[in-house]
Amino acid sequence: MTAVLLVAAVTAFAVLLPGLARPTLPFGVRITHDRVADPAVIHQKAIYLRLLLVAGLLAAAGVVLIGGGLVWPSVLAAVDFAIYLRAHHAVRRAKRKWGPGKREGVTVDTSFRTDPVRLPWPHLVPAAVVVAATVVAGLVRYGSLPADLVRFTGFGVDPDGTEPVTLARAFEPVLIQLGVVVLVPVVALVVLRARPDLDAARPRGSARRYRVYLRGVATMTFWVAGALTLGLAVSAAQVWHLLPANTGWRVATYVPLAAMVVVLVVWDRRVGSAGHRLPPEPGEEDEESPVVQRDDDDHWYLGGLVYVNRQDPAAFVHARIGHSWTMNLANPVTWLVLGAVLLLLAGALTGVVPERESLF
């Protein structure tokens, strides 16, 4: 049953994925506003959906008739991504046949540097309060802990596993909470200071929308931090035997995150990637500059996930899929970050960094 549900979840995500991008970025390909409803684009979207449904039905049938557990959802995810890439290349081929259009250019709004979007610190208060309450509860409880703790798995707990009490094990959920509260503002700040992805065809409207969008991204990021810390607090209470490690409380660990998923979906429906769903303000309805956004498709790979451009000094850029950012693989900063990640992975493999089954 779990495998069937995962197959359904993978298929649903793949179906929704193109809708997370702006209309001018179908399957990670940049097109102009007048081509959004082009028959070639509409046709590829229809083919994409049909192929996804066929793949999902075949995977579900494989789970039921053959078995194999979680192998089928994993294979389906790879197949769905291949279907996405097929649509990406098909739209690019159609784009080449359209011929030259308006003159290309870029737009720059210096107010993103002179008056940048600020971190919404009040929205981090709930996460900080949860962490503080968890710390206090842990300190009060530590002296009366039993000899064995419920085993912490990185976010939830293993009700059938126990570990001897040590200070590090007892406060591991709290340490992860602190890591979340410290790292999330850093990540949000990097996103806020990344180069804004504006539309040269509609410079004023896209700049205003993008500013609203960034505020929402930062706020949602802080709310996700609150959901994570609340789930970790429930896990900590189970580790410390303050709450029973039964199915109900284990499910409760994930309720805040599930609620945040609903909030994020509603927010996306109202705002959209880079704010493209926001209604225009007076004067923006007919905004149309003499240039269109520069075509930089040749610098994007894997359907708009990977960016490589030696001529671009930016290290972080908005990706072409949904509400995500990626790093310019031609920038030295990217290689420093990747080097640090590789060191952490090497530490995990050698046992220097403690290994957990899963964050969730």
TrEMBL record:
SUPFAM superfamilies assigned to the protein according to its UniProt record, in alphabetical order: MFS general substrate transporter (SSF103473)
Pfam families from the UniProt entry: DUF5808
Occurrences of domain DUF5808 (ranges): 310-335
Keywords, in A-Z order: Membrane, Transmembrane, Transmembrane helix
Highest taxon in the source lineage: Bacteria
The keyword Acyltransferase is annotated on this UniProt entry: no
Endpoints of the signal sequence: none
UniProt cross-references to InterPro entries, sorted A to Z: DUF5808, MFS_trans_sf
Protein's recorded name: Putative membrane protein
Biological source species: Actinophytocola algeriensis
